[in-house]
Amino acid sequence: AQTVTQSQPEMSVQEAETVTLSCTYDTSESNYYLFWYKQPPSRQMILVIRQEAYKQQNATENRFSVNFQKAAKSFSLKISDSQLGDTAMYFCAFRSNTGNQFYFGTGTSLTVIP
Amino acid sequence: NAGVTQTPKFRVLKTGQSMTLLCAQDMNHEYMYWYRQDPGMGLRLIHYSVGEGTTAKGEVPDGYNVSRLKKQNFLLGLESAAPSQTSVYFCASLRDATNEKLFFGSGTQLSVL
Asked: A interface toward B at CB cutoff 8 Å?
């Protein structure tokens, strides 16, 4: 089975600053997808960004970008110009290209301080 | 376009009671999933289905049963609820094996006393 590890249970950042959330994973697959989901207090799960393992270029979505290191099995999320609305739980997730299941990390609770 | 709808949103049960959570999607998705979310443990897969009439066990299936009699619906049953099943339950759907975008419902908060 695949495993996803988020080693930072809680983090905080000043508004307008940059913060990086860490994620590592373990797999023997060569083709897979990686995701970051945001869960605000509303509880809704929102897809923030996704990365396909065969693409070497790091994915970017506005203020959100990833640092994908395939050899190191690392997939960190960088949030630039942090906003109060970024306060949420963030989950890293993995899906094999050949599997049916998504595997989630334990989450990082991010607080943006005004 | 409702997406993924979970019913109910909140429920309180007594130990030993039974209940069914309903997940409905209107996107004609093949795959559907039930997760539970507990503090410090992330989302853990309970059961999933890759098509109408099929179900499979996930990481934490004990104490739960599921059915997918219709493509659009995925039911999660608790036959005899236990306090350890107090959790937030999420349903999700995926168009098919070639797609990677998971659509989530808004969750069900279940408390077992």
From this structure: 1, 4, 6, 9, 33, 35, 42-45, 47, 50, 91, 95, 100-107
Summarize pLDDT for A97-112 with one digit per residue, the tens.
877 889 999 999 999 9
CA separation for the pair B64, B21 (Å, rounded):
11
Answer whether A101 sits within 8 Å of B48, measured CB to CB. Answer: yes
pLDDT in tens, B62-83: 999 999 999 999 999 999 999 9
Question: Could you tell me which residue, A56 or A86, shows the higher pLDDT?
Answer: A86
| Region of residue A7 (left: phi > 0; alpha: psi -120 to 50; beta: else) | alpha
- What is the predicted pLDDT for the residue at B60? 95
DSSP string, A45-73: -EEEEEEETT--SPPEETTEEEEEETTTT
- What is the pLDDT, as a whole number, of residue A98? 79
Cα A95 from Cα B97, distance rounded (Å): 11
DSSP H or E run through A25: strand A24-26
Handedness of CA B95, B101, A27, B60 (dihedral sign): negative
- Which of chain B's residues have a Cβ under 8 Å away from the Cβ of A33? 100
CA distance linking residue B113 with residue B44, whole number of Å: 22
Percentage above 90 pLDDT, chain B: 89
Q: Is the peptide bond before A9 cis (omega within 30 degrees of 0)?
A: no
- Closest CA–CA distance from residue B27 to any residue of chain A (Å): 17
